[in-house]
Specification:
alpha+beta, Rossmann fold, Topoisomerase I, domain 3, six-stranded antiparallel β-barrel, 26 strands
């Protein structure tokens, strides 16, 4: 008798339907010579610290670090009944072989390993390794079951990741909470979440410390025979001036003059199609196009994989396909043709004698556990939810795009000299849209601004200057992280890398994995370290306080965590030893605990129940972090809440003083709130918007009742 253990009931049903006729039993499906059962999430989890001794029930510095020689596991209380079903089936003498049919990845391997180990099973294991849940894929997978022993490197990496997170999280959280938090508050610290938080806090500091600088650009319009083009002044590769008088002087100097074309160069450029989606790229695109969170995208993709059978396994870090898939691609192209918008492209590709497959699509050397996310050969029946339809379209559209020709452009560069001053003009003509036909609104869903089309211009020609002008600009701070940008930063451990193929080469050295990054972001929000405000992620006072407390501690270093992740990836391939990795983690944590124990500092202010968020009367949210000033009405400390900087005595004294974080469409930063509290007004601030959407400048001031008002500099 063969026992098949799937990760979820829905997957168990799919497998049973392929294997043949079966009867339903308690927590399982039984057929002729086989039984399918399943986990429900994590049936087994690592035991908490008190499982290693009663002394760990209380949080004491002298009991740290906690470094189990052998980790203990326990059945999850919520799903214990299903664990007992699986354990009983594993112990059944009639069962001679167990098939691990959990998701084909690190997490699926860990789920099975824990259940198999705690169940006391020692029977031979085979591995079902499939990338889609269509009947054909399941049948093919059972025809090519892998030896369970061959999966040992993946299991080692999975166990090491779980145990490393336990050791770092339990010890660092206890150490910092004991030393620096007040009763009832927990400073949650983690191997991946803390360096991720640091990326956002460091960006916030950059924004707050940024001092805008004005600059000026000189523009000229040239005319000849009824044609015109515009140029921007430049010198020594710079086109900005700090001095307005100098800019005005140049504009006046060339006004009414005649420009001589010193260079008129045309170059043909090509733009290759984007690579196929891995999970991180899919999440980034869904965030940019639809505002989806990473977690929302993952859940929708999982549904398209498990329930609708329309896409392949989504928790992948590869953006390439393997050679053995090449013969299946035409069927998949035909399947996505069921979408009306994509039908013409599908038909065009299928009309060719052969799909144009190259190394940017199929490359065995760049596929590890799983290939890129692509459609299956199943056609959509139109029963998709709105979210499912959007994500499926992203995947199907990208899949077709990789087979279409490169986009081709003719780029024109013109340099014109007028009275010893030079002006640059650039233009573009689309020669062949190629794959961009599939993206009329651009990859991000927003129409991209294209360079203008220039008239015919030849070197040596003379063009009259018919208009000049000076434009004033201001340098801008770096933007706050959107979820899309944060996922990209996590993928490269905070390094700025836009090139797709270079990002792919760095995939083993990021923060977390594609499968865990969404949960890391959600965790940071849940514990009160981050807030979502529209598409931007903002650190809370609590999150900033933690990073400030950690200082230069290597636990907050994206580079250190990236190196750990790289070692786990090597372990999956059998190129690193689990024992060496875990010994390194234990040494690191022992040093960390000793360092924290010797640190001095004040306790961080704790919000009620140790959390941020919730409701707090008018200012919505329980206060967190240190006071930013004194309430001008009653003198009590002013604390940051989710939506405002509010008086901490709202409950005791009924004081309703608050500075709302958003005023006339502008986000009020903590330094600006502090300035308002200390001086009663701020300097002139940019970024406000009228109801009609028009930007304006104003200062913040208190009125006679200490309500915030806008001051436009004319007494109003």
């Amino acid at each position: 008798m063969r026992l098949v253990v799937a990760e979820k009931p829905s997957v168990g049903r799919d497998i049973a339907n392929v294997l043949g006729k079966h009867d339903r039993r308690d927590g399982s499906l039984a057929g002729d010579g086989w039984i399918v059962t399943w986990a429900i999430g994590h049936l087994v989890e690592l035991a908490p610290p008190d499982a290693y001794g009663d002394e760990y029930k209380k949080w004491r510095m002298e009991n740290l670090p906690i470094l189990p020689e052998r980790f203990k596991a326990r059945a999850n209380l919520k799903t214990r009944s299903q664990f007992n079903v699986v354990k009983k089936l594993m112990a059944d003498p009639a069962v001679s072989e167990v098939v691990n049919a959990c998701d084909a990845g690190r997490e699926g391997e860990l789920i099975f390993a824990y259940v198999y180990g705690l169940g006391g099973c020692e029977k031979p294991v085979r591995r079902l390794w499939i990338s889609s849940l269509t009947p054909e894929a399941i049948r093919d997978g059972f025809s090519n079951l892998r030896d369970g022993n061959a999966m040992k490197p993946l299991e080692d990496a999975a166990r090491s990741r779980g145990e490393a997170d336990w050791i770092v999280g339990m010890n660092a959280t206890r150490a910092y909470s004991i030393k620096f938090s007040r009763p009832g508050n927990v400073l949650s610290v983690g191997r991946v979440q803390t360096p991720t938080l640091k990326l956002i806090v460091e960006r916030e500091k950059e924004i707050e410390n940024f001092r805008p600088e004005k600059f000026f650009t000189v523009h000229a319009r040239f005319r000849k025979d009824g044609n015109t083009y515009d140029g921007v002044w430049f010198k020594n590769k710079k086109n900005r001036l700090d001095d307005k008088e100098k800019a005005d002087e140049i504009a006046e100097k060339v006004r009414g003059g005649t420009g001589t074309v010193k260079k008129a160069e045309k170059k043909t450029a090509t733009e290759k199609p984007p690579l196929l989606h891995d999970l991180t790229d899919l999440q980034r695109n869904a965030n940019a196009n639809f505002g989806f969170t990473a977690d929302r995208t993952l859940k929708v993709a999982q549904s398209l994989y498990e329930n609708k059978k329309l896409i392949t396994y989504p928790r992948t870090s590869s953006r390439y396909l393997s050679k053995d898939m090449a013969e299946t691609l035409a069927k998949r192209v035909e399947a996505v043709g069921a979408l009306p918008d994509l039908s013409p492209f599908s038909e065009r590709l299928l009309a060719r004698s052969k799909l144009p497959v190259n190394k940017r699509i199929v490359d065995d050397t760049k596929v590890t556990d799983h290939h890129a996310i692509i459609p299956t050969n199943k056609k959509s029946s139109g029963d998709l939810s709105s979210d499912e339809a959007k994500i499926y379209d992203l995947i199907a559209r990208r899949f077709l795009a990789v087979f279409l020709p490169d986009a081709r452009f003719e780029n024109t560069t013109v340099i014109t000299e007028v009275r010893e001053e030079t002006f640059l003009a650039k233009g573009r003509v689309v020669l062949e849209a190629g794959w961009r036909e599939l993206y009329p609104a651009g990859l991000s869903g927003r129409k991209e601004k294209e360079p203008p089309i220039l008239p015919p211009i030849e070197t040596g020609q003379e063009w009259l200057v018919v208009k000049t002008g000076v434009k004033e600009g201001e340098t801008k701070p770096p933007p706050r992280y959107s979820e899309s940008a944060l996922l990209g930063a996590m993928e490269t451990a905070g390094k700025f890398v836009e090139d797709e193929e270079l990002r792919q080469a760095m995939k083993d050295s990021g923060l977390g994995t594609p499968a865990t990054r969404a949960s890391t972001i959600e965790r940071l929000i849940k514990v009160g370290y981050l807030e979502r405000q529209k598409k931007a992620l903002h650190p809370t006072a609590k999150g900033r306080s933690l990073i400030s407390l950690l200082g230069e501690n290597s636990l907050a270093s994206p580079e250190l965590t990236a190196r750990w992740e790289e070692r786990l990836a090597r372990m999956e391939r059998g190129d690193d030893r689990r024992e060496d990795f875990m010994n390194g983690i234990k040494r690191f944590v022992s040093s960390l605990v000793e360092e924290v124990g010797g640190m001095e500092g004040e306790k961080l202010a704790s919000p009620a129940n140790g959390r941020s968020g919730g409701k707090r009367g008018r200012s919505s949210g329980k206060p967190s972090g240190d006071p930013i000033g004194a309430c001008p009405k009653c003198g009590s400390p002013v604390l940051e809440t989710k939506k405002a900087y509010g008086c901490s005595a709202w409950k005791e004294k009924g004081c309703k003083f608050a500075i709302w974080k958003t005023v006339a469409g502008k986000r009020i930063s903590e330094p600006q709130a502090k300035e308002l509290l200390s001086k009663g007004e701020t300097k002139q601030l940019k970024g406000f918007k009228s109801r009609a959407g028009k930007p304006f400048e104003a200062a913040l001031k208190f009125d006679g009742e200490y309500k915030v008002k806008l001051d436009f500099g004319d007494g109003n």
